[in-house]
């Protein structure tokens, strides 16, 4: 088996969580993995699932906390689980060569391990090896053609590698699988901008903003980046400040900090050095 567990219901919740994660439903996946841990507090892979979901939800501190919990239970894991858990732990803490090592060892024994290919793609991307990142992401898609996360990664790495049309095609396939997968709208917009389709990218951000408060927050950053790309600094400033207001009201510090960083870069490009320093602070 791929994991050890004491409770059948815990195993079921873990399976549900994995399906939700593959579909890009990260909040739901986190809840399912949490239920699995309640049912079996020694279920190491479920802690790892919580950590992966937290990382995808933009909560790096929580991700590290749950990975540490997962690592406390490696003695109850199968060899395959240990490779997976160590690999994603190294990905989270930023040790990308070790990340490549763990997942390469995993795939040496389990060639059809979808998570292995998906996360190895991210390790290569962090090492700026885009051809290898695309190759691993494509293998993950071949193994799970209906997996939204796998196609999102292929879209992202295609765009990073300069294949903007391929990036757009994969992003649209992701949204056909899960129209509420917010990150896919950002990936689609990036591919559109790469092709000079600024109006279409703005339309994509408008759709994202209509989905939820978090969608509106992410779209504010997207709108600002498009405006900056076009040299419309005043509009970019307004979009970022509106987004910061949304984040502060929601007590969502991580995205607010990201937007202040973008605002600092904007002011620096604009020649407004005092404002840049204030935003950076």
Essential attributes:
0% strand; single chain; mainly alpha
What's this entry about, in short?
The protein is mostly helical and 281 residues long. The protein is built from 16 helices and no strands.
Question: If you had to describe this structure to a student in words, what would you say it looks like?
Answer:
This protein has 16 helices and no strands. It starts with 7 loop residues before the first helix and ends with a helix. By secondary structure, the protein is an all-alpha fold. The longest helix has 18 residues. 48% of the residues are buried. Helix 1 packs antiparallel against helix 2 and helix 2 runs antiparallel to helix 3.
> Helix tally?
16
Portion in strands = under 5%
Q: Give me the secondary-structure category.
A: mainly alpha
Mean pLDDT across all amino acids:
91
Tell me the total number of β-strands: 0
The rough form would be described as globular
Helix content: over 70%
Q: What is the CA-based Rg, rounded?
A: 20 Å
Tell me the span between the first and last alpha carbons: 50 Å
Question: What is the chain-wise order of helices and strands?
Answer: HHHHHHHHHHHHHHHH
The low-confidence runs, each spanning 5 or more residues with pLDDT under 50, are none
User: How would a textbook summarize the main sheet?
Assistant: none
